[in-house]
Amino acid sequence: MEHKHKYDAQGKQLCCTPQEEKIYTDANAKKLLEKHHNNDGHNHKHSDDDGHNHGSTDKSTFQMFLPAIISFVLLMIAIAFDNWLTQSWFTGWIRIIWYIVAYAPVGFPVIKEAYESIRKSDVFSEFLLMSIATIGAFAIGEYPEGVAVMLFYSVGEVFQNLAVTRAKANIKTLLDQRPDEVTILENNQPKTVKAETVNIGTIIQLKPGEKLGLDGELLSETAAFNTAALTGESKPDTKTNGETVLAGTINLNTVTQVKVTTAYTDSKLSKILELVQNATAQKAPTELFIRKFAKIYTPIVVLLAVLITVFPYFFVDDYLFSQWLYRALVFLVISCPCALVISIPLGYFGGIGSASKNGILFKGSNFLDVIAGIQNVVMDKTGTMTEGVFKVQEVNLKPELNKDEILKLVNALESQSTHPVATAIHQYVGEIDNSIKLENTEEIAGHGLKATVNGKELLVGNFKLMDNFNISYDLDPSTIVYTLIAIAYDGKFAGYITVADSIKEDAQITIDKLKALGVKTTMLSGDKSTVVKFVADKLGISNAFGDLLPEDKVNKVKEIKAKNETVAFVGDGVNDAPVVALSDVGIAMGGLGSDATIETADVVIQDDKPSKIPMAINIGKQTKKIVWQNIILAFVVKGIVLVLGAGGLATMWEAVFADVGVALLAILNAVRIQRMKF
User: Fold this and answer.
1) CB 544 within 8 A of CB 522
2) Residue 443 above 90 pLDDT?
3) Distance between CA 383 and CA 593 in Å, rounded?
């Protein structure tokens, strides 16, 4: 299948640069260029054999360095013949042919790339600059320098390939997590089939050490799973009968049975893989600027090189064409922007890889930039800072009512909701009475549930729901700390149920680390104000607001943004999706979080640990720091050597350092983020 790029009206390529595509292809990381965000201007597709396979994707390190080794050996022999072991026969055409042969292994592939780039309307590529500079060196008789420049450039490219391969390793771990085949039970007999063909409801048999291919519900009594691939957490996760088990997790002990609940393409792991692959296409503003800058900068440098060659003719008395051409060629080598074009995307790519290794998924490198400068973290309470696992504490109903009957009605109505409170009531009351017929069931956002039972109205929710339906009650809800579930039946207040949630063990560490980073914290929740204030006071969160509807959360975030301050919102529920979309960075808790919130969010925390919030900010800060270090290094060194080259004070050897040397230093710096502990 032919590789199809997208071009603008002037024929300029809009998608991945030839240099970037070549590096990623040679590094066997081409899949990371395949999928792009719908609105990023990248609507081309790659395949494994798309006509751009400039280097074998399964080359060993030695094979990648082999052309450079051959070129280096021939160059060293030639230099020895020129300077130390003078040979009478090593002159004229023999000498020229020898240097051409030394040049060929490293030079011809680059010249071919330059030709391919010109065919795609990308005339002023790095490949063309290096081709002109080295062929020009041959033209003026500087054969050793011509070979040396291309040799070092090619070595630099190999190091770039290796750096991308290393950066890719963290993400490849994720991409390799899901098995292609699974063992299903058909008439109680095990059968191996393709995972993508398995239907919902099929039972998968999972042996110890095997990976689960699809999301499902555990049928066995208990089982322990390794979830490190999804969450970055190495501690085994024990599941019990009926709990959800995600694709990509590894069964640790006994043979286990799992009933498939989600199609292959809709599994949580599939969404993670899509997020990670799309992330490499979502470019940060810095990265986009460097690309645009390189497109303008390179033609200008070529023009300046021409002027350096020709312009002195009119002003210099002892003008020598070969001398000024040499200076221009030095100028061209120095100007090659590969240090910026490769090291900056590599820095962001490394940041995304480090985050994914720790169970944090960024949907694009642009969000690494934004999160690095976040001033406010606004968070939901339930499921974000608390476990989201409620337990009934007290049932207080009017004595004249039949307690069991009312609880059965409440249980039946709450079965229509996925809220953690509904689960707590179900666990307390027990099995749902299927003889209860609910009519006109309605969920009122931010308030609760309403239905008609036996011709009578049943209301279950917070006390705002009671107020809306003019139900009078004889208590002050603000005096009770726990979360309150108010009940009204047949137009009368029937009583309430209290439920409580526990604070996550790393919630306190999270707030302390955010304060250390200088980030302000705010808690917004639909839960009652007394509960929200209690949790906020315990954690040391300065601003906390409860009894909020989804639109109230949106308004609170708007108030912060009105102060020209950046906001990251962390949530896990469907009701959080609007405010997640509004914030500068939306962060979703991916384990307990709803699909709607995960879809809307910019960053997904896979293990629901709030301590990953400051970690994500720190990864963003370190990534941005490394990127700017590389930008400054490249501009300063190149700027100095460009001036020296134009003035005739720098040779090709200084030019090689300014180009390949700086590129290698920048790449080594970019790779550092993959070794950092966060």
Assistant:
1) yes
2) no
3) 8
Alpha-carbon distance of 91 to 96, in angstroms, equals 8
Residue-wise pLDDT for 190-209, tens only, equals: 888 888 888 888 999 888 88
- Cα separation, 464 vs 282, in Å, equals 43
Contacts 24+ apart (CB under 8 A), 472-475: none
Between residues 405 and 305, the one the model is more confident about: 405
Q: What are phi and psi of 192, to 5 degrees?
A: -90, 125
**C-beta separation of 128 from 118 below 8 A:** yes
Assign 292 to helix, strand or coil: helix
- The pLDDT of residue 631 is 84
Q: Which range scores top for mean pLDDT: 338-342, 345-349, 445-449, 519-523?
A: 519-523
Q: Name the strand (E) or helix (H) holding 206.
A: strand 203-206
- Maximum CA extent, the chain: 119
pLDDT band at 345 (very low <50, low <70, confident <90, very high): confident
Catalytic amino acids? 380
Residue 626: which H helix or E strand, with range? Answer: helix 612-646
Locus of tokens 């060929």: 104
Could you tell me which residues come within 8 angstroms of residue 199 by beta carbon, excluding any fewer than 6 positions away?
Answer: 260
Match 């309430």 to its residue by tokens. 496
Rounded (10°) CA dihedral 190, 191, 196, 198: -60
Q: Confirm if 294 and 91 have CB atoms less than 8 A apart.
A: no
